[in-house]
């Protein structure tokens, strides 16, 4: 069938709106008419060559829309169902069978290679030029997306699509880091580096967990103010002095938990220096330099019992966690609408520019 897509053709170049031809669903696949799709840093990293996705490609991995067709064997959803689309997973590796699909042993292949198990791809231009599709199992920068039964989640019709779409990656990652990966206990203290959409989702998750000291670190004053609105008890401007000193002025013994969304080694080093005994540090942010490292004082880490863990997709089991976040939003406990700014799908490049300028937190493209 014919569709319209935002195609990434060159690194660091604007997306181009182009007609595409997309195959109908094969066994286990689901064709979704996209209503809205979030823009995530990972999309831009793939476009710009930081991830192993071959260009030209149709990216996008926070889609929400309506199922229009299903392939053989699909029973979880049916045509007419509304779904959020999230990351794909194989379902058979040790991580998947243990209920940890975000650590699927095939994650890199399923997210970035853009091919089915037989090596075929579902997207071409009308002239037959192959385009890399199936990005994160969806390639939802388009009017239609081909996804898989495993990475679609039924969602209600009474929540706007632009709020459901970001749950597929960024929002579930931030909230899940607090609610699942670290499982922050009530009455604890948590330090969150970065008040973008992922960090602010973590702030909201910390409120839900009952954390009593929630510290957001962010250089932009407007984002610090929003963090306070969303439940942070304290905010820190990292330019105002050494981070660890500012943290310990609030919590002299150090914090129980810390989450990094920046990927900046110096920030991570400061988080480690801000921990109390048996503290846990969760790493979400991807560094600009793939070879980046953080110096670690082994004696100090051993004596304090500090844990440092990587976090992928907030340790989410999407069929469980996305509906949980939706219900929390409907109950007024997870105000993700405060993070989202919508743009028409055709304005994708304007949306990216606005995000780079710091004018919006979470741009979401909506289809006409």
Characterise this structure.
The protein is an alpha/beta fold. It folds into two domains: 2-168 and 335-366, Quinone Oxidoreductase, Chain A, domain 1; 174-311, NAD(P)-binding Rossmann-like Domain (Rossmann fold). The protein contains twelve helices and 18 strands. It has helices spanning 41-47, 94-97, 107-113, 161-164, 170-181, 197-209, 221-230, 243-250, 265-272, 298-304, 318-330, 348-356, and strands at 2-8, 16-22, 29-38, 57-58, 63-70, 82-85, 123-124, 130-131, 144-148, 152-154, 189-193, 213-217, 234-236, 255-260, 275-283, 307-310, 340-344, 362-366. Strands 3, 5, 6, 9, 10, 17 and 18 form a seven-stranded mixed sheet that branches. The protein has a six-stranded parallel sheet with strand order 13-12-11-14-15-16, sandwiched between helices. It has a five-stranded antiparallel sheet with strand order 4-1-2-7-8, with no helix packed on it. Helix 10 links the parallel strand 15 (275-283) and strand 16. The protein is globular and about 65 Å long.
Question: Notable features of this structure?
Answer:
Rossmann fold; Quinone Oxidoreductase, Chain A, domain 1; 2 domains; 368 residues; six-stranded parallel beta sheet; 18 strands; 12 helices; zinc; NAD(P)-dependent alcohol dehydrogenase; 28% helix; ADH-like_N; globular; seven-stranded mixed beta sheet; oxidoreductase activity; alpha/beta
Shape call: globular
Low-confidence parts lasting 5 or more residues at pLDDT below 50?
none
Radius of gyration: 20 Å
Average pLDDT works out at 96
Largest sheet: 7 strands, mixed
How far is the first residue's CA from the last residue's CA?
19 Å
The name of the CATH topology of the largest domain is Quinone Oxidoreductase, Chain A, domain 1
Number of helices, where a helix is a run of at least 4 consecutive DSSP H or I residues: 12
Q: Which structural class should the secondary elements be placed in?
A: alpha/beta
**Overall CATH architecture of the largest domain:** Alpha-Beta Complex
CATH H-level name of the largest domain... which superfamily? Medium-chain alcohol dehydrogenases, catalytic domain
The count of β-strands is 18
**Helix and strand pattern:** EEEHEEEHHEEEEHHEHEHEHEHEHEHEHE
Q: What's the level 1 CATH class of the largest domain?
A: Alpha Beta
- Binned strand content: 25-35%
Secondary structure: helix percent = 25-40%
Count of folded domains: 2
InterPro entries: ADH-like_C, ADH-like_N, ADH_Zn_CS, ER, GroES-like_sf, NAD(P)-bd_dom_sf
Cofactor: Zn(2+)
Keywords: Metal-binding, Oxidoreductase, Zinc
Organism: Rhodococcus pyridinivorans
């Amino acid at each position: 069938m014919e569709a319209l897509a935002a195609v990434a053709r060159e690194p660091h170049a604007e997306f181009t709106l182009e007609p595409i031809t997309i195959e109908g669903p094969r066994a286990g696949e689901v064709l979704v008419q996209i209503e809205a799709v979030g823009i995530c840093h990972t999309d831009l990293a793939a476009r710009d060559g930081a991830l192993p996705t071959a260009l030209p490609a149709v990216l996008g991995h926070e889609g929400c829309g309506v199922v229009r067709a299903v392939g053989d064997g699909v029973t979880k959803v049916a045509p007419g169902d509304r779904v959020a689309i999230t990351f794909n997973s194989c379902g058979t590796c040790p991580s998947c069978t243990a209920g940890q699909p975000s650590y699927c042993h095939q994650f890199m292949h399923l997210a970035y290679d853009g091919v089915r198990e037989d090596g075929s791809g579902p997207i071409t231009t009308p002239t037959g030029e192959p385009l890399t599709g199936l990005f994160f199992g969806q390639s939802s920068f388009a009017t239609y997306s081909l996804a898989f039964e495993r990475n679609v989640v039924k969602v209600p019709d009474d929540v706007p699509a632009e709020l459901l779409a970001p749950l597929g990656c960024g929002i579930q990652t931030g909230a899940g880091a607090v609610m699942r990966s670290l499982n922050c206990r009530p009455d604890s203290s948590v330090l969150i580096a970065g008040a973008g959409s992922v960090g602010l989702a973590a702030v909201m998750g910390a409120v839900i967990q009952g954390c009593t000291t929630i510290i957001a670190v962010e250089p932009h004053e407007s984002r610090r103010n929003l963090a306070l609105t969303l439940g942070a008890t304290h905010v820190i401007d990292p330019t105002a002095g050494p981070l660890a000193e500012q943290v310990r002025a609030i919590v002299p013994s150090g914090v129980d938990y810390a989450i990094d969304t920046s990927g900046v080694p110096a920030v991570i080093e400061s988080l480690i220096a801000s921990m109390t005994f048996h503290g846990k540090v969760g790493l979400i942010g991807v560094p600009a330099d793939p070879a980046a490292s953080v110096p670690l004082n082994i004696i100090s880490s051993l004596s304090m019992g500090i844990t440092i863990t990587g976090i992928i997709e907030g340790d989410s089991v999407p069929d469980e966690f996305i509906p949980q976040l939706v219900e929390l939003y409907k109950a007024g406990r997870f105000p993700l609408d405060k993070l989202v700014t919508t743009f028409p799908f055709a304005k994708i490049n304007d949306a990216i520019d606005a995000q780079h300028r710091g004018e919006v937190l979470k741009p979401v493209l909506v289809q006409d």
